[in-house]
Amino acid sequence: MSPLAGYVVVDLSSGIAGAYCTKLLADAGARVIAVEPPEGNPLRRRTISGAALDDGADGALFGFLAGRAHSVVADPRRAADRDLLDRLLAGADAVVWSPGPGTADRPEHAPAVLRDRHPHLVVTTITPFGLDGPWAGRPATEFTLQAWSGGIVGLGRGAPERAPLHIGGDVGEWFAGAHAAAALLTARQRALATGTGELVDLSMLETQILGLSYYPVSFYETSNRPFRTRRRLSRPGVATAADGLIAVGCGTAQQWFDLCVMVGHPEWIEEDPTPAITERTNEKAAEIAAWFAAHKVDEIQELATAFRIPNSPVADGATVTELDQHRARDFFTVQPGGGFVRPGPPFRSRPPLLREPAPAPRLGEHTERYRRAGSPTRAVPADAATAKPLPFQGLRVVDMTTFWAGPSCTHFLAMQGAEVIHVESAQRPDGTRLIAGVPIDEDRWWEKSGIFTGLNTGKRGITVDFREPAGREILRRLVASCDVIVENYTPRVIEQIGLDWDAVRALRPDAVMVRMPGFGLDGPWRDNPAFAYVIEDASGLTARTGYPDQNPVEPYSLGDPNAGVHALVALLLALEHRRRTGEGVLVEAAMVDAALNITAEQVIEYSAYGALLERAGNRGPHAAPQNLYRAAGLDEFGRPDNWIALAVATDEQWAALVDVLGRPAWATDPGLRTAAGRRAHHDAIDDRLAEWFADQEIGAVVARLWDAGIPVAEVLQPHRQAEIPQLRHREFFEPVAHPVNPTARHSTVPARYSAGPGRYHRAHAPLLGQDNHAVLAELGYSTAEVAALERDGVVGGTPRF
């Protein structure tokens, strides 16, 4: 039985975020009832490429997102349809809501009203900034949210001589949808205990902060300096080979040494080691580029893989289905009833948690069925339990993860009340401890990474050298004591230490084990190094990012946290399966599978219409004009680098912009009154706007444009996120005291839950080995045995490199 069988969700959303959220729920067995206006959900007509659709035909993307949903047409102007919707809500368990055409726009269907009228419902809302606060209801687009989040400049994406770059492909919408599914399932977990629903208020700005920047506020307030302030092109990064594009990463000293040998210059290793790796690779950029240009993609990939250097061909909608790894895993399938190629599931499991794909419904296909059917009424029981502000209290998790993807998954559980035990070793601490920006001769340098503290508050911490038999015995005892095991090592590591799924089941038959390999547990790339940027290369995220006259650039961010939130969704579904059946579950949440789902539109458009979606700098398919424009003045670093993100999404917004500009003759040209006309003259409009913005003070002009109803944003430095009034209102950042570092603000979760908790960070991130004695005592070790383990170096609180 699917984990959400019998769970009923009414979908009152109209964008990709809501549709992807409900798709994940429907695939897991929920009955999703999509309530559409008479003209249908706008997604039915969406084709980014502009492909012509036959009258009455739905776009391919809708077919992918709406499979298994039920379609009910309701005209909110008709009393009978309003009554139908009310009956559907009375019989449902949850609602997914976003502002848009149809019933969601009516006051009687506002989220708070729905929650008051139907207190049994989990009402999950998806809005740009949240339901209340100083920015609530302000106009925004995917593009302007990326700017406000700091994600456009946060990780130094793009060449310094040009404007910074947003990530293409509407990735923020998809990422928000996955977060909405996780938020709804979290509220469901609480509802199972309390018997009542709640309002879950998700902010897309907050999801983008978690996905497009690397805990910059925590880093800044811990180290008193920004994580990164300058744009740079990674080398080799995306390189031109003799027959195509390939991306090769070089982020560690060992990878630099191996690259030197691979490109035939071992003598570079002996040169001055003082400059950072980025500087050294840029110094040798010409020689490196020449070597790549002389070799084919397959040859470079084979060599880089042999050297253990992260690499991948740069895939797009036309080529991603042909990559060896995806073919070997039979990842892409044909959509039932649609005839186009689509990605497979974002995670796999034993037993299966997700159902096979199914066709999307015709508009109104199920309306009469629900008109005739008597809807069961679900109400809050008289003996509803008292509040449970921490929905995962009592859940015990062993967290064998490192860097960003895995810890972000387990961090959510810790913030929501789970007991999470983070496992490192003194010989190999969590990799984010090494990203502290302090010299290694500084006292306790390994405790001074704001990135580590930002990802691990509320967790307990132990160190175990599991290369030793005694260390492996500690892990076995720990696994036997836990409900959930999460790990993101390369697959061979877990197998070498004897903790594969069969071993885990023998220790704990009802365990949920979540494995997060980069490329999956099988296939020719199974053991390849998988950093975020390689996942982005192999999934199409990179291909949509950059200027059309240059090679694409890697987003260098989303590949990790996107994997984390999809693994979280899978974990919550696995817990529901265990609750219903008593069985344990193995989840395989490959990072690349999650990324291939949020880039699904590329493959779908190419397969359905032969249209290759390509990068377009800072322009986009939903707004014209859309771009970054330099404003007057210097930024906080003394550079002429103040940028404004503008996205005119409607003809009404264009008219408002023309008024703000003072109605100059060029802007009042009748040919610019339509999106098609503006798109045709985008270059000329950009020139005019660039000239106008160059004389404007950034804060004042953003306020004027926003007050006029135009989506606009400052391209914010990410360490300034905590200064955003909306985030202060929602208390998205919380101060956390630390025994080694200054008190610093840390981001929380991207949704406010009406049932709590009031605070998410209840303890600082663990010091290295902080809980060794306590956890080992819980596992049955005596004080003398722990002392012996410390003497032997199996456990410890100081790095041993």
Automatic annotation (TrEMBL):
It comes from the Bacteria. It holds the Pfam family CoA_transf_3. Residues 340-361 are annotated as: Disordered. Gene3D superfamilies: Crotonobetainyl-coa:carnitine coa-transferase, domain 1 (3.40.50.10540), formyl-coa transferase, domain 3 (3.30.1540.10). Coiled coil: none annotated. Its EC number is 2.8.3.-. Keywords: Transferase. It is an enzyme of class 2 (transferase). One of its GO terms (molecular function) is transferase activity. This is CoA transferase. It comes from Nocardia fusca.
